[in-house]
Write a structure and sequence with these properties.
Largest sheet: 2 strands, antiparallel
Order of helices and strands: EEHH
Strand order of the largest sheet: 1-2
Number of strands: 2
Radius of gyration: 15 Å
Structural class: mainly alpha
C-alpha cells in the first residue's frame, strides 16, 4: 500500500496555523495525511481553503517551505507532470464478494 505519507506531525507555519492549540498539539502542527486518494479528496488542506492541488502546494509553509519553493521554481512546464502524478493517486476500488 503506497500511502505517500510519513504519518507524522509537521510545522506548517503561521500562515496555516489554527487559532489555538488543540489538546496539546501546537496550532501550526498538522498530521501528514496520506496522498493515497488525493485525486478524489478535494478541497485541500486542513480547512479546505485550497480548491486545487496547485493551490495547496503553494500555500504550504513552515517545514514545507523549501519543497514549496522548489515546486514554484519549476514553472508551469515542470509543475504540470507532478500535478498529473498527484491526480493519479486514487484509492483502489472496493469489491464486494457475494
Amino acid at each position: 500500500l503506497h500511502l505517500y505519507s510519513d504519518l507524522r506531525r509537521h510545522d506548517m507555519g503561521e500562515s496555516l496555523a489554527e487559532p489555538r492549540a488543540d489538546r496539546g498539539v501546537p496550532r501550526e502542527q498538522f498530521l501528514t495525511r496520506p496522498l493515497w486518494g488525493l485525486a478524489t479528496s478535494g478541497p485541500y488542506l486542513h480547512d479546505a481553503r485550497a480548491p486545487t492541488v496547485h493551490e495547496a502546494i503553494v500555500l504550504h509553509d513552515g517545514e514545507a517551505r523549501d519543497a514549496r519553493d522548489a515546486y514554484v521554481a519549476l514553472g508551469e512546464s515542470g509543475q504540470a507532470p507532478l500535478r498529473v502524478f498527484l491526480q493519479s493517486l486514487t484509492r483502489s476500488p472496493t469489491y464486494v464478494v457475494r
